[in-house]
Write a structure and sequence with these properties.
This protein is an alpha/beta fold. Helix content is 37%, strand content 17%. It has six helices and nine strands.
Length: 212
């Protein structure tokens, strides 16, 4: 793979993706558009962008594959509308730019339980973006659906998540594999592998298939 475009490079999974991609000898160049600068690296191109006004004429939209780990939380976003803007609208806008530029492969870090009909607003948004990405007709679209992410440190404490991780560690033998916690490093490795393999059509990787 010559050029890999990574969206959401400052998040937990995104940071792992950047680290692993830069260490991967099979990837010649990593392009990671972000709001704030990343640490410099010889293989890294880091355009500073405003996701409310993405550049349509940037040459880097044309890549061998796009990996998207853009996302926020309801707490960080502050409202349902703001959450939808990041996890749906920003993702779709970037995907359209890449698709129009001819990029054939798109891999999304989604969520276990993603479903447009879910009662959970979070999972409904995740399901909506999966559905809308499929309509763009990438040659290869992979939807990776991790359960509770284990990794850190996070920029802010998430008490409920910390409790959930502790409970999962104790109750792991009783929890179905799909709903057990999964490390951010394993999620990133799975996403990179999916970008390399580029299975034709729409491919779904559930959480139980992520662990190395």
């Amino acid at each position: 793979m010559v050029n890999l475009l990574i969206l959401g490079g400052t998040g937990l999974v995104g940071q792992q993706l950047i680290h692993q991609a830069l260490d991967d000898a099979s990837i010649a160049r990593v392009i990671a558009p972000t709001r704030r600068p990343l640490a410099e690296h010889a293989k890294l191109t880091n355009p500073i962008v405003d996701f409310d006004a993405l550049p349509s004429d940037a040459a880097w939209w044309a890549a061998d594959a796009v990996i998207c780990a853009l996302g926020t939380t309801m707490r960080q976003a502050g409202s349902r509308a703001a959450f939808n803007k990041v996890d749906h609208d920003y993702v779709l806008a970037a995907a359209r730019q890449a698709r129009y530029a001819g990029t054939p492969v798109f891999v999304l870090n989604s969520s276990a339980g993603a479903n447009p009909s879910s009662r959970s607003y979070y999972l409904r948004v995740k399901g909506n973006i999966e559905r809308d990405l499929a309509l763009l007709n990438f040659a290869s679209l992979t939807l990776v659906r991790p359960s509770l992410l284990i990794g850190g440190p996070r920029p802010e404490r998430r008490i409920a998540e910390e409790i959930g991780i502790r409970l999962m560690s104790v109750l792991a033998p009783l929890i179905p594999a799909r709903y057990r916690g999964v490390s951010t490093a394993d999620v990133a490795a799975c996403i990179l592998a999916a970008a390399r393999q580029a299975g034709i059509g729409v491919n779904i990787i559930e959480s139980e298939a992520i662990r190395r």
